[in-house]
Amino acid sequence: MTYRRNHIGFSQRVRLEWLEQTANLVLAGNDKAAINDALQELLKDKVSIGGQAKGCNRNKIISIMRKIWVTTPEDLIPLRNDGLAFLSTQYSVLSPHNLRLAIHWGMVMAVYPFWSCVATQTGRLLRLQGSAAAAHVQRRVREQYGERETVSRAARRVLRSYLDWGVLQESGAKGIYSAGTTLAVEDSRLIAWLAEASLHARASCSAPLKDLIDSPSLFPFRIKPVHAESLVAASSRLDLLRHGLDDELLMLRKQTTKPQR
User: Fold this and answer.
1) How far apart are CA 113 and CA 201, in angstroms?
2) Do residues 22 and 70 touch, judged by C-beta distance below 8 A?
3) Tell me: the pLDDT tens digits for 223-241?
């Protein structure tokens, strides 16, 4: 987990519909080879057109998407499986598009904490001034990941992904973004799932409940205030530590058995 939080990993512009296709291939029971072939076919006319090199952007994007939904890190398999369950059932609380956005956001955040870092800086700027300048986001992300061009380039591509997903929009001024789609999330099961995803992106794997629910890393969502007990009841992988009447710490519960893929 420490490696994930110190590693950029997510360095490409990835559209939501490509992740949706990846999850759908998993839900249909395809094996890794079949999924890879299908994603190559999906992207062959969209990214690195005519390119076959191992390090081309198309292969990098496919690698990112496979790690999220196919070759998921072992400690995230239960989260992944529950995410797939959300996607495969009729879930009337959110529209299909909004549900997919929430689930894919949570999975990317858990597998690639860099995405969460960029979201945190973006969300803070949106709250402070109603807009987010790409240059300001990149500077703040570099403070955490190092003064490297690779960090700035990856942050730019994550921001472009936010635009593609509709959670940011162009403001009219170059490099300045305003908030896009904001989704209301009121179901305790989905809130618990997003909370778990968010905790996986944190070094401590724990956070005060209010900080977790109001986190700027979840800026595309308006999450209904909930009691910590309802989240723990909704997910066996969450635990609660209470220091006082108003001091509630939500944390990941240690897994005692090996998760099933």
Assistant:
1) 5
2) yes
3) 999 999 999 999 999 999 8
Phi/psi region, residue 67 (left: phi>0; alpha: psi -120 to 50; beta: rest), is: alpha
Residue 37's identity, in one-letter code, is D
Interior angle at CA 84, CA 78 and CA 87, nearest 5: 145
Closest CA to 87 of 103, 109, 72: 103
The better pLDDT of the pair 93, 128 is held by: 128
pTM: 0.92
Which residue carries 């609660």 as its tokens? 240
What are the structural domains, with CATH classification, of the chain?
183-252 (3.30.420)
